Amino acid sequence: MSNKRIIQTNEAAAPVGPYNQAVAATGELIFVSGQVALDANTGSLVGEGDIVTQTKQVMANLEAILKAAGVGWEEVVKLTIYLTDLSYFSTVNEVYGAYFQSETAPARACVEVSRLPKGALVEIECIAMSA
User: Fold this and answer.
1) Domain assignment of residue 97, given as a range
2) What pTM was computed for the model?
3) Quick one: 60 exposed, middle or buried, by C-beta within 10 A (0-12, 13-18, 19+)?
4) How many domains does the chain fold into?
5) Residue 63 Cα distances to 36, 49, 73, 100, angstroms
């Protein structure tokens, strides 16, 4: 954790969810490709039309990749969320927030896109640092 420093200032708008304004990181960076709600065993989309189920599956996929890289959520320094509908924002925030402590959460962006692979509702990518 010593290679990760949270940057917070009152001179910029406060975060509107479980993330920090900025994170400084040193050491090796791990770039995790965007994940959609695909089941690892079948390759099929799970939770069709269900943003909660899809977000949980995306987070499980990311967690498996982070674990394979030898790191955990606490080493994630940047995360980007892609939604097909920004009305899902608060629901995704709620699911996503269970994975991070607010004081060490990564920097984050969330954007609406017109479509995602396999008809998914949410895709998330992240950057982590090695411990």
Assistant:
1) 4-129
2) 0.86
3) middle
4) 1
5) 13, 22, 7, 12
